[in-house]
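Standup notes
- HV: blocked on the assembly model, inputs below
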Amino acid sequence: MSIPDPAERIAAFRAAQRLAYDCAEAIAADLRPGMTEREAATRMKTWAADHGVREWFHEPFAWFGDRTAFRGAIGIRALRGFNPAFFPGGRRLEEGMAFILDCAPVVGRAVADIGYSGALGHNPVVEQLMDDLIEHRNLIPREIAAGRSMAEVSRAVDALCRRQGVEPRHKAYPYTVLAHRVEVLPGEASRFSLARFGLRAVRELRRQVAEGRDKGWSPLWNSTEASDHPPVPGLWAVEPHLGFRDTGAKFEELLLIGDDGGARWLDDDLPHVRRFETRRSQKKAA
Amino acid sequence: MSTPFEVETGEVTLSGHVAGPEKAPVVLLIHGYPDDSTVWDGVVADLAADHRVITYDVRGAGASTAPAGQRGYHLGRLMADLAAVIEAQVPDGARVHLVGHDWGSIQGWQALVDSRTRHRIASYTSVSGPSLDLAFGAMSERLRARKLAALPPMLGQMLRSWYIFAFHVPAFAPLVWRAGAAHLWPRLLRRTDGIEVAPRAGQLADALRGINLYRANFREKALAPRPATIEQPVQLLVPRNDPFVSPAVFDDLATRVPHLVREDIESGHWLPLKDPALLAARVRRFVAHVDGGRDCGALVHGRRLAARKTAGAGPLAGRLALVTGAGSGIGRATAIALAGKGADIVATDIDKAAAERTATLARLVGVEAHARVVDVSDAGAMAALADWTDDVLGGIDILVNNAGIGMAGDFLDTRIEDWRRVLDVNLWGVIHGARLFGARMAARQSGGHIVNVASAAAFMPARGLSAYAATKSAVLTMTTCLRAELADQGIGVSAICPGIIDTGITDRTTFVGASAETQDRKRAAASRLYARRALTAEAVADQILAAILKNEPVALVGLEAVIGNLLGRVSPALMRRLAGADLMPK
């Protein structure tokens, strides 16, 4: 079911991820006060369509203001976290407000799933959370290389959150996932979607869940016993989401776990990584 | 030894006294209504040791003569009187440090902007009397901005000011005074403020004439306030329990009064009578600050309070809260919650990085925050911390004795050093904090609050928890005693008894009599249990906030704490049987 050449496969996923981040960056640059979540999500969809995207793993999400922290209605975890409050709504953007853009286009047979956080103007809490996220980005491959089980890595993320004094808000995602498995999609593209989730991608995820159940691992990576297994080689869309009071920030990008048990991020040339490098060199200069 | 003087203004004859060394800094005291200058006697006796102190009877009061009509009590005339007294008694155009109480304080504010007096005033200490221009100016500004949220505090002040409206009703107030209020005045003050004053022959006459102060000035200032920027340094002493002036009148002044310090004092309206020594000490300190540039922690504290007391800044704005064990769990959550209500934060912990992180988070909430490393069981380190807060921050208002450690295991397995450690941190840590900071709060007389974090284990005996539960029982009982002792000093004391809270304490709990390996296993098992309970540190922090704001004696957090408390009362026997159940992780 895979693109035969591994190098080609990796390149395809990296290209898909770049496209998704380009989309989020372009729309983020265009955000203005008064714009609603729905408008931002629609703009992302249009931009992606203009750049050749015909299918989605999930259609774009946008969260503004305190909705970035996944508190209140959006944080309700009944129904395993499938919560209509996730969907982009009528919240309007204001100066200084935090926002998160999240989209998962399918490019060819490769899936990207990204999260882009920021604020309209200056928001010191978002800045702090973006700095904190980089610690998580460094932690995850390190823990995997140290031979931890996937659940232990997820718990290490929880522990780091505790030290940082922030809440691991990804616990509000379906199945409290820190990450989920990403595969090359089989078969033909499908234009149909179910509650903003692409039919082909959902079908593939279900197949993986079944396969994982047989082989003793889970494509839904979280802190529960279900993830108490050695790292499973392949691509994982990792999405730590941190919250402090009524502000949240996340990134989401692909982590490549190798057959040797090592792990590396698929791409280091991403907005949140570049932002941190700039900040670090500024701090050094100062 | 005071010398009487008289000043002829052409309209009235003002009678006053001057005391103290001639070369010393000059302090001028203006009394309020319905007093005369004898209200200052206690303050003068103290201040005159090292200051030249001038007092006089305002026109229409005491030994001064009265003007003919109501118009004679207009602030403009009162300013002419003040200018004349300064001119006559203070040679060479030297400047005076002004102090005003009640109506004298209203006059003082006016003197800071009046062209006849403002250049003669070096500093101003205001007690229980607002600037009419600034107060009415703020009110009309808020009304213009149509901020509905601004209305409730305004209405509160208006309710407290009922007497001002009553004074405008023809014949009403004079009737009350004549009917016996003047006669009963000493008894009234004893009842309301616990103050002993001798009956005064002129009381009724002063009270009747002084009604004109209100009638001649309030309408004009209310309809056309003229707020201006005050250039002189001002010290606000705000009595917390003033039935006539709401402390909120003094909020939001910092923009108009750039050199402002504020202190809220546990007192009623008559501070000059209630505590002349305190008032004299504050004036002395402020004069030294303005004349000699001497600064101190209390003034730092006062500037902070003045700057932070703005509309909508949260009920704890300008207060300084110190939280021990603030690097994690309940301590960190409490520090953040306090910051959310406007309090500045001192976060202490034995882990420097953790304390600093909490301070960073508190700053993100929008307050000032400091991180200090301290082991609460170290008496010397705690004393040094208390001194540091005094010197650098001017003392703290809220103390949360939160730092604690977990310990579990059978009594007979608990070694002497285990006992020492858990007693040192959980009990002695609280004792050190409460002793050191409680004494400072009492001495400062501006109230405060002490929160001691105990535990549901304090009243829920269980095997395997003898050491931990003993420390927490001690904390709970000590807290209740301390509350009784500090109540009349305006210092609240609360105990918090959380049940099973997922804070990370179980990751560090010492399981006595266990090998390193079983220790880890037991910690993990306990942590899983605590995580399943899923009651968060934030929930405890919310209860701590409520306990502070409502001065609650005890807060039980979690259903298990509430049930345990109830059970212990209803059936101690059942409680004892439950204590026998072995719930310790294996």
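- HV (later): unblocked. Chain B has a mean pLDDT of 91. The longest helix of chain B spans residues 416-444.
- Next: hand off to the docking folks.
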